Amino acid sequence: MSTIDDNVFTFRKPINCPWCNHTLTAAGDVFEAGAKPVAGDTSMCIECGKFSFFLGTSELRKATYEEFRELVRDPRIMLAWLAWKQTKIEAHHG
Ligand SMILES: [Zn+2]
After folding, report:
1. pTM of the predicted model, to two decimals?
2. Greater pLDDT, 33 or 63
3. Domain that holds residue 38
């Protein structure tokens, strides 16, 4: 069983995923602990795994296909996505 380092999830303003409408209750920066999201930051939905961009601290917009292709070129983003995928698979079969 894994635990979440609470320090990573310092930003606690509910925001809805523009893809699946899941309410994200906290945002965590996987690269910089404690960072607050700013406009233009990338978000990955913990529910559906799709990418969005922060328009501010309370609104997200869907990433376009072109932006998605650009994002997954970043190995850190790819690793974050693969970790999410692995967690989803384990949740289904674990
Ligand atoms: Zn979602």
Report:
1. 0.77
2. 63
3. 15-93
